[in-house]
Amino acid sequence: MHASNVGRRAVLAGTAAAAALTTVPFLPGRAQAAAPAATAAPAYRWRNVAMGGTGFITGVLFHPSVRGLAYARTDVGGAYRWDDRTANWLPLTDHFGSGDWNLLGVEAMAVDPAHPDRLYLALGTYTQSWATNGAVLRSDDRGATWRRTDLTVKLGGNEDGRGCGERLLVDPRNSDTLWLGTRHDGLLKSTDRGATWNPVTFPAAPSASGQGVTLLVAAGRVVYAGWGDSDGTTPNLFSTTDGTTWKAVPGRPTGTAAKLPVRAAFDRHTRELYVTYADGPGPNGQTNGSVHKLCTTSGKWTDVTPVKPGGTATDGSNDSFGYGGVAVDARRAGTVVVSTNNRWAEVDTVFRTTDGGRTWTSLKDSAVLDVSETPYLKWGADKPKFGSWIQALALDPYDSRHIVFGTGATLMGTRDLKHWAPQIRGLEEASARQLLSPPVGEAHLISGSADVGVMYHERLTASPSRGMATNPLFITATGLAQAALKPSYVVRSGSGDQGNGACSDDGGRTWVPFAAQPSIAKDAAGPIAVSADGKVLLWCFVHWDGSTHPTYRSADGGATWSEVTSVPKGAVPVADPADAARFYAYDTATGTLHASTDAGATFTARATGLPSGDSNFTLTAAPGRSGDLWLSTIGEGLHRSTDGGATFSRITGVGASECLGFGRAADGADYPAIYQVGTIGTVTGVHRSDDEAKTWVRINDDQHQWGWIGKAVIGDPRVHGRVYVATNGRGIQYGEPV
């Protein structure tokens, strides 16, 4: 994955323009209108739009006693179970709603070797003050149903060190006992299968680093715990033989290359514990690392590092990296695989040994890569790289040649140690931000996401054949717009090294970068709007620190740009879909709607007194109509204007509106179907109205909520009832009536 992924899904300041980039929501108490709740909906079938992963796989766990059973965890997209019969990953945490959005980051997972149906998840995405506490889920049916225990501490499934672990472990002496390592609160223990948790005495004190216990692993009847708050000289590996007293493991490696234990695996044949180390938690920032093994019967440590970091790379740069994943072969003594991490110049690899670490082979060197199922993995190049951010690494206990590793974008696997391909089907983790459903053309959907830019979806059931939009390649998409009266013309904006804006004359199939861009685009990004006839562009910007900047206008396809001083900073422009001379911009700072009737050259204030300070708003123009505007706010619901923003009226019955979009009208209706993510009466979910917001039906259900989904929703203008929902970590969901 790109190095910039360190800032993935960052929280930005609460401004209107920042709202266009934010993927971690602020969810205030929701006002409830005194109106009937949404009525029951006809049954909907929900599926992922196929993209092929696109997010960081932080852990993979094969069950040691069940062939073909495996689990995967992600940093913001929940957990999955592998269905060996269909060769597909099945999501296990889609039932979390917006109030539990912080539980879609999986800090750790654990299985019970003696009870194959038991599964445990430690959940929590962030540890900051604005985040909710973590939780532990426990299941007796492999994640089909859950029981939940809320914790009094926070977990950090999307923070530095999220590729470490596992931090959750079933005690090898007693299946009712579980251990949970935390970042800031030491070690927790449960003696009732995760129903209750209590802190235990541990011989190390947390620091501000946010690492704490990095791993827990059983070696026979002994439990080992890695400690991430060491300075490289103080103890960083502890063990307990009785489940009560923890002691530092003597003779451990010291120094920068062994500062932080990342992962560990136990070879039961040789009674040796293999530990990977780095000088930081990763996935970014590691520059040094090592691999060591501990003979648990003698206490002897041996340095078995395959290649020591710090040499000269082929491009002349410093070959700096850490070590990440480690897995042992359950059937063959001394057969181990380890991975490098954050090795950009030489590219990360997986090393394999069959003699206990005396000699190693780099599997990258002989690898044949096939990414035809997910072409975006070429990242605009001629061929893909072997991998990056490899901290999740697993070896099938029933097949010595079946190895998988997670990256910042996919899960790669081999069954012969040579041929590698994504084993990602069904696992979708994109943080989607923009959705377009064109009224004509090959694709029913064009999307914009964090980390993987814009994609043109010719089919909803296969990863786009063109991969990521290139020329230029964006790391993260921040804007996507289509000329309503000229749908072949599409524009996009984002953050990237090659440029920040581009246009397409063939409906989004191919792109050409703007000839120029405002100077602020070097340091900021933001949404973009295009007039109905495709002749005028308006582009606003917000810096990654949340500061807002002016809106810029181009009337020559991006060749030249000029500042529009009459648009308040942070007000996001929206084009009128029927009148090319009209644009609108809502200033959440003052609760004022601004409008332009001269193709965006100047704006004047219209309606005032609208909801202010609501950073998660959307202003949407109804298709085919001039001046028909809908303003979604969380705190004060849904508002509508039919006079170009001169006046607005609040829609009764809507307690909170996070985003809104339109689709094909129902048979016999003269107004487009409206889709809304929000609260109708007391029911929160995805809703549809076929009668201009007079009545609503909820079309998702409690098992299909996907955490926070307040970024974008849009109906298909060609298929009534079909709707696309952008999620913050579960990709793009699309629903259709059964």
UniProtKB/TrEMBL annotation:
Q: Which organism is it from?
A: Streptomyces sp. R28
Q: Sorted alphabetically, which SUPFAM superfamilies does this protein's record hold? A: Oligoxyloglucan reducing end-specific cellobiohydrolase
The name under which this protein is listed is: WD40/YVTN/BNR-like repeat-containing protein
Q: Name one GO biological process term.
A: xyloglucan metabolic process
The organism's taxonomic lineage, starting at the top: Bacteria, Bacillati, Actinomycetota, Actinomycetes, Kitasatosporales
Give the range the annotation lists for the signal sequence.
1-33
UniProt keyword Signal, yes or no: yes
A molecular function GO annotation: hydrolase activity, acting on glycosyl bonds
Swiss-Prot/TrEMBL keywords: Carbohydrate metabolism, Glycosidase, Hydrolase, Polysaccharide degradation, Signal
Family of this protein: Belongs to the glycosyl hydrolase 74 family.
